[in-house]
Amino acid sequence: MVRISGIFLLAISLPGSLCHAQILEQGNVTDFISRMEMAHGFDRNGLRELFSNIKISKAVLEAISRPAEKLPWYKYRLIFLQPDRIEQGVSFWQRYDQQIRDAEDRFGVPPEIIIAIIGVETQYGRNTGKYRVIDSLATLGFNYPERGGFFQSELEQYLLLTREQELDPLSITGSYAGAMGIPQFISSSYRNYAVDFDHDGHTDIWKNPVDAIGSVGNYFQQHGWRAGELIAIQAMVTGDRYKELITEDLEPNIDRKILKRYAINCREELSPDSMVKLIELETGNGYEFWLGMHNFYVITRYNHSSQYAMAVFQLAERIRESYAKQKMLMWNR
Predict the structure, then answer these.
(1) Which of 21-30, 66-75, 243-252, 258-267 has the lowest average pLDDT?
(2) Per-domain boundaries in the chain
(3) Which among 28, 98, 113, 265 has the fewest CB atoms less than 10 Å away?
(4) Is the distance from CB of 34 to CB of 45 less than 8 angstroms?
(5) What's the sign of the alpha-carbon dihedral 91, 1, 221, 305?
(6) DSSP class of 66
(7) pTM of the prediction?
(8) Rounded to the nearest 5 degrees, what angle is found at the Cα of 181, between the Cα atoms of 65 and 23?
(9) Distance of alpha carbon 330 from alpha carbon 207, whole angstroms
(10) 278 strand-pairing partners
(11) How far is it, in rounded angstroms, from Cα 177 to Cα 186?
């Protein structure tokens, strides 16, 4: 990661984008620069120079219009529940076993969940994104009205982050939505939840898997992870009354006591005060059903999608099973 003593030093030396005039003439950009100057003491001319090097990306706008989470489950799951991703997860666990156990002790999050998050997000650091973060955030903040406020807020956080960490704001790459590093943290998540887990004096989620491990654990703890509790269990459903319980809200909002009234059953006994979320997943020739618990909801705080949370959960289960088998084989040699 490139570090510089002045946040805009490198920006001044770079050639202007083809979108230079277009960006700086946008009213929402001018307003944003004014807010950054007044609220955080940024230099207006420095921000204008920086923005002259931002490129509004058509590819980013196209990518956000077709997120993988819109795929049906039977297609979506194939992206992540592949043998190579499972085995790479086992290898990652073996390589960082002590640090992952330390994270479990400190944050209460099972090793397989931390590993699966990193596996789903970047295939254990292999694919951290090709888009310049500042281009992604500016493109979506100023040219994507559906969520412009959110992405402008993340751009604000990004500029604060790069100033605090003395990073070149034009050099960092990530996802089309501006997520960065091994765990794909957005800027606000970095500032709020990233940790220096190996205590080397730097919080580096880009090249340091140990900091990434600790940061994911901290993220889940801060979002209310409950150690030792169930995440999700499969359900059996009869008839179609269950449809009354299917909602877009991700938070568990169904009292388990009413499940039988809707012909919903599960093999595991739930505690009397359990609240659950009914999840319907398309299989290609029908549907499968799951009950998501509080910890399942916590996973959706990382990505607001029940399909995403289910992919993390199922990948985690397969990694845990494969890791246990390999460990048993080693013991029996």
Answers:
(1) 21-30
(2) 9-63+127-222, 232-292
(3) 98
(4) no
(5) negative
(6) S
(7) 0.91
(8) 50
(9) 30
(10) 291
(11) 8
Q: Which residues contact 119 (CB under 8 A, 6 or more apart)?
A: 80, 85, 88, 89, 92, 315, 319
3-state secondary structure of 181: coil
- Which tokens hold the place of 98? 């002590």
* 136, 250 contact by CB (below 8 A): no
Catalytic choice (112, 121, 154, 156): 121
Residues 6+ apart with CB under 8 A from 139: 56, 57, 60, 61
Reduced 3-state DSSP string for 267-317 = CCCCCCCCEEEEEEEECCCCEEEEEECHHHHHHHCCCCCHHHHHHHHHHHH
Q: Which fold has domain 9-63+127-222?
A: Helicase, Ruva Protein; domain 3 (1.10.8)
Tokens of 51: 């923005």
Instruction: Give 291-328 pLDDT, tens digit per residue.
Output: 999 999 999 999 999 999 999 999 999 999 999 998 88
Confidence class of residue 22 from pLDDT cuts 50, 70 and 90?
Answer: low
Closest CA to 135 of 59, 208, 21, 249: 59
pLDDT more than 70, % of the chain: 93
Least trusted range by pLDDT, from 121-125, 238-242, 323-327:
323-327
Answer yes or no: 121 catalytic: yes
In the structure, what pLDDT confidence band is assigned to residue 282 with cuts at 50, 70 and 90? very high
Instruction: Say what angle helices 209-222 and 97-107 make with each other, to 10 degrees.
Output: 20
